[in-house]
């Protein structure tokens, strides 16, 4: 079986202010063993480096591994490696040397790119699950947001069915979302587990992972608790706390019956089974030691709850947006992060949208060509709060309150009033005119139609 590998960092002290940072690619099983070593945690990241001892002359192969601490700092875990470790890993990874500040910046950036957390896990208790997950998805998933429709359906059906699973893992990433029963992710060879592991090395996917615990339905809403989890840490844990499937329990939709097949039989003949018994409504993978599986899932939950920050979903979304912009390099604080799909719609509707640059500058997106160019260079987009509110209206696909003829009249009257009123009224009218422009055809058509009504084109200046 192919071993999943991940990055891990070892730090050595060469002098008073000289350090050696080595990046290694080790099997996740080995990384999980390193996690189980007794470690020393530090609240101040800089103090981590002071705790690294000077090398001795014993040559015992002890390495100081650096891993994120649950409370937002770093933890040093020292481990004596076997005598052949150095020889086996001569060409593994890469190394850099520098001062404490240089190595600190390098280490923090590398761990963040891997997806490790540097703060407690966010926790949302007794919330509208679908509403909360959608808010996170809209801020973190740039493409294929329609994936969330499948997640909504799965979670709603589970909340309405007393016999369905109650605990799920949910993931938002750059290119879509995934939702799986918690149990399935702990069972090897299954599609949920393989998919959950797939993004472990995808640094640019900015994965956000959560554990969802459903309470049931309340006034038509799916209620439950949502706990953010450290995705990379979870993958390390799963490598040593997963089980092989032995049977598959399948509930068929029509007729409503439940049958159990051996894992090999179901894997090799699932199409024939579907042809004979109909559509599978629900699958449950069974393992040899069910008690051990339940203990391993409980251990993962304890790891998730090691350090949590109970907060409101809106506060988390604001933090998510802040971190994304600051990690990118845009720190002005005057823009609301806008996903590529929303940015494209804003440009088509004539709303003011900007390309954000890592140096803190911004440029208006004037047309679709400028949008495509920025997208090809993986730039971020932003909008002011007022423009974002208008965009939110368009995203509802609501029937307009005014038809086009009525909107033309409002637009013309606002233009006339703007030519006559003073500055105070002008600001209000500017907003009315801008909103009307977003609902009407392009600028050239607006000018033509207004001229036909007898208004001089040269006076149409906002």
Describe this structure in words.
- It contains 18 helices and 19 strands.
- By secondary structure, the protein is an alpha+beta fold.
- The chain has 4 domains: 5-114, no CATH class; 121-244 and 288-310, no CATH class; 329-395, no CATH class; 404-459, no CATH class.
- Helix 1 (28-35) packs across helix 9 and helix 16 packs antiparallel against helix 17 (423-439).
- The chain is flat, with a radius of gyration of 28 Å.
- The chain starts with a strand and ends in a 10-residue tail after the last helix.
- The relative contact order is 0.08.
Poorly predicted sequence stretches spanning 5 or more consecutive residues: 443-462
What would the principal axes of the Cα set say about the shape? Answer: flat
Discrete helix count: 18
The number of domains is 4
Strand arrangement, largest sheet?
A: 3-5-4-1-2-6
Helix content: 40-55%
Main attributes of the structure:
462 residues; alpha+beta; 6-stranded antiparallel beta sheet; 19 strands; disordered C terminus
SSE blueprint:
Elements: E1 5-15, E2 18-27, H1 28-35, E3 39-42, H2 45-50, E4 62-68, E5 74-80, H3 85-88, E6 94-98, H4 100-114, E7 121-128, H5 129-140, H6 148-160, E8 167-173, E9 176-181, H7 182-185, H8 191-198, E10 208-218, E11 221-229, H9 231-240, E12 245-252, E13 257-262, H10 263-277, E14 280-287, H11 290-304, E15 308-310, H12 313-328, E16 336-338, H13 340-349, E17 354-356, E18 362-364, H14 368-376, E19 380-383, H15 385-395, H16 404-420, H17 423-439, H18 443-452
Helix pairs in contact: 1-9, 5-12, 16-17
């Amino acid at each position: 079986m192919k071993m999943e590998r991940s990055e891990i960092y070892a730090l050595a002290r060469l002098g008073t202010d000289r350090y050696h940072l080595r990046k290694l690619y080790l099997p996740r099983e080995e990384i999980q063993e390193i996690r189980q070593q007794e470690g020393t945690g530090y609240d101040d990241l800089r103090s981590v480096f002071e705790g690294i001892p000077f090398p001795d002359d014993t040559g015992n192969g002890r390495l100081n591994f650096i891993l994120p601490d649950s409370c937002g700092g770093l933890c040093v875990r020292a481990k004596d490696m076997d005598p052949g470790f150095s020889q086996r890993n001569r060409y593994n990874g890469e190394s850099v040397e520098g001062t404490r500040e240089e190595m600190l910046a390098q280490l923090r950036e590398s761990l963040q790119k891997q997806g490790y957390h540097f703060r407690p896990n966010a926790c949302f208790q007794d919330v509208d699950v679908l509403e909360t997950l959608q808010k996170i998805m809209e801020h973190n998933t740039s493409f294929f947001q329609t994936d969330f429709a499948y997640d909504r359906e799965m979670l709603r059906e589970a909340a309405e069915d007393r016999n369905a699973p109650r605990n799920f893992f949910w993931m938002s990433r750059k290119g879509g979302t995934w939702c799986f029963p918690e149990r399935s992710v702990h069972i090897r060879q299954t599609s949920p587990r393989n998919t959950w592991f797939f993004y472990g090395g995808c640094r640019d996917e900015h994965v956000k992972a959560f554990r969802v615990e459903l309470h049931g339905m309340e006034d038509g809403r799916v209620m439950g608790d949502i706990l953010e989890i450290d995705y990379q840490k979870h993958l390390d844990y799963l490598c040593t706390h997963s089980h092989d499937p032995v049977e598959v329990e399948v509930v068929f939709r029509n007729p409503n019956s439940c049958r159990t097949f051996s894992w090999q039989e179901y894997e090799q003949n699932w199409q024939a089974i579907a042809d004979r018994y109909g559509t599978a409504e629900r699958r449950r993978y069974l393992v040899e030691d069910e008690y051990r599986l339940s203990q391993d899932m409980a251990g993962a939950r304890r790891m998730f709850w090691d350090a949590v920050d109970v907060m409101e979903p809106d506060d988390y979304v604001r933090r998510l947006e802040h971190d994304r912009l600051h990690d990118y390099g845009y720190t002005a604080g005057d823009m609301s992060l806008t996903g590529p799909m929303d940015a494209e719609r804003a440009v088509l509707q004539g709303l003011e949208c900007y390309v954000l640059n890592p140096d803190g500058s911004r440029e208006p997106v004037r047309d679709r060509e400028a949008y495509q160019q920025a997208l090809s260079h993986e730039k971020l987009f932003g909008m002011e709060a007022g423009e974002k509110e208008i965009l939110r209206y368009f995203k509802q696909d609501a029937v307009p309150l005014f038809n086009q003829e009525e909107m033309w009249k409002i637009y013309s009257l606002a233009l006339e009033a703007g030519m006559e009123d003073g500055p105070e009224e002008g600001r209000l009218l500017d907003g009315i005119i801008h909103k009307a422009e977003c609902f009407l055809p392009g600028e050239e058509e607006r000018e033509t139609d207004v001229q036909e009504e007898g208004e001089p084109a040269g006076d149409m200046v906002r």
